[in-house]
Amino acid sequence: xxxSGRSAAVSHVGKIRANNQDSGYAGRYLFVVADGxxxxxxxxxxxxxxxRRIIETDKQFTSAHDAVFALQSALIAANSLLxxxxxxxxxxxxxxxxxxxxxxxxxxxxLAHIGDSRIYRFRNGALEQISADHTFVQRLVxxxxxxxxxxAVHPRRSVLMRVLGDVDAAPEIDTTVLDTAPGDRxxxxxxxxxxxxxxxxxxxxxVTVPGAxxxxxxxxxxxxxxxxxxxxxxVLVDIDETNDSSHIPPITVGxxxxxxxxDSDSTRRSLRLPTLLLxxxxxxxxxxxxxxxxxxxxxxxxxxxxxxxxxxxxxTWLVAIALAVIAIVVGVLLAxxxxxxxxxxxxxxxxxxxxxxxxxxLGPIHLSSVYQDTQINLSDLPPFNRQQVEATIxxxxxxxAREIVNRLADARTQ
Length: 414
Ligand code: CA
Prior knowledge:
Blueprint (H helix, E strand, L loop, with lengths): L1 E2 L3 E6 L9 E5 L3 E8 L1 H16 L9 H25 L7 E2 L1 E7 L2 E7 L3 E6 L2 E4 L6 H7 L5 H5 L11 E2 L8 E6 L5 E5 L1 H4 L4 H10 L3 H14 L6 E7 L12 E4 L10 H14 L17 H44 L3 E6 L2 E12 L2 E13 L5 H9 L1 E3 L2 H14 L3
Antiparallel strand pairs: 1-2, 2-13, 3-4, 3-14, 4-5, 4-6, 5-10, 6-7, 7-11, 8-9, 8-12, 12-13, 15-16, 15-18, 16-17
The site of calcium ion has 6 residues, from helix 5.
């Protein structure tokens, strides 16, 4: 981490990845995060190339409109540079990078953004996400297919639809100009932060931690506490009264802070060896890329897969409901069977009868029926026995019920 007092840039490899493919820059007027991707040696190279090209715009502009134009041009130039690099180095085929950058021009912010790194404005205690995620799941949210809550845990949430790199000759870059004021904090981060730390938690840290460097540190620490499966990069800017930042030393972090690793094999080895030693187990795992090329076929395929997943979820629910219904039916049958193994002696139309079941009724369902009429008239019984029969006498089996009937027969008064 490094700091200039009112801005800070922090980048961490995280706890799983073998190398840091993120790059970050906190300059005098320009603040950028790039999150590289694309297989083995590509991601770190892509983000470093993009950042190095874009920091040429770290200048004092007289109008926000000019600043936006300069930023956008720099992103387009970075895109061409990435394509040229892939042309010269075939092993980098498929590399790409997100770029989210802001340029301060007095009380205005010029913004350029592509990919799923995020730009937030924190003002009066409230955090607002300014950039849109150029992701597959955000498209599903925008078209009403899934909710933002479903998107947050969607297995395809890191699939990007737009990036700079070996993909598209004319990248679709979002640009805008926004106002800013002293007291605002601008946060730019890679998805290594925003995918694992909630907006509420980010807001809480920005409310409670005053210094840019401490706050940036706390944000990265929060991601590490969540397991930091991805590289995590945070650039934080506190807007103060002055726009004179000429004395502030720029800070570069992440892969852009190291020599490009594809320049020579020896450079690459010297860069990679320490991380291999630090992460001996993880380094053997393939480095997952979260970039997928954009094509309508591919999008259709992803949408179909999403539908298949939804169908599987529905089927799982139906099976669960069917199993629950079967369990209830079996339970009721077993309970009914249990009641039918019991007997009692009671009165039926003036005579003593043996009933099978239990006296209680279950709503409209009778749980007992006459098993045998004994032809013993109630009126022939002494009053005490008659009352006993009218109140019913339980018997746990048929033999006991018959013994009771025999005793009643003996007790008859005539
Ligand atoms: Ca990432």
